[in-house]
Predict the 3D structure of the following.
Amino acid sequence: MFPIKNQKSLLHVSLSTIGILFLWIGGGLLIDSRFVFPYFAHSQWLANTIIVLLFGFSYFQATRKIREMMIYAVLIAIAGECFFSLLLEMYTYRLHNVPVYVFFGHALLYIAVLYFSKSVAVQANKTKLEIGMTVFIILYASFFLIFKKDVFGFILTGITLLILRKRPRERLFYLTMYLCIVYLELVGTYYGCWYWPPYALNLNDTFLSSANPPSGISFFYFGLDLGCLYFYKLRHNIAWKRMKNIRCLRQLIAEKQITC
């Protein structure tokens, strides 16, 4: 799915990870959109089938670790979507259900961002990318606040950036995730695949007015990564501790003052 092993160019890595992801998002959501549904009543099932097949193709090409993370991502997505959409009604899908393609789509988005952020070319330009992404995110959230009264999204964006200030190791991954969710949400809401109410959690008496979509909604998607890591560490506790000790040892050697 994401052939980046021998690619050293930042452009090539971007196109073969985030570029492919954006094509899938645009094409997959178009099938389930308000534009296609009037002419093909089973469009959502077609989208479901295509995304499940793409997931299967990507799964069998991935490493054993990535396969495991993909399974965790699907399971967490099922729980998260049922809780936030069906129970809390934070957002609503076109047919008032949760499409199957959403669960597997979360996993594909997760590994695309993972492959991108961990690639050699991206790590070589890490600082520049983080600065550029942060500036764009601030401008994007501010635009939505001023012109769409998106208080909810602006607050979530602010919380996200504050958290990432003290998490340099994960910063690039989460900034990339934010931008991918921006694209996903803009496309999905434009196509009418789902919509967000004008107030957070659909509570009309709250001061948290929201756009459709909110700018900083990727804050909730971060739980996907944390959940995947939690279950992976739980299942591979010894190997995870060994890797952490090796990482600490390398830092100790490099800086001569790091304590593990």
Notes: The first strand starts at residue 92 and ends at 93.
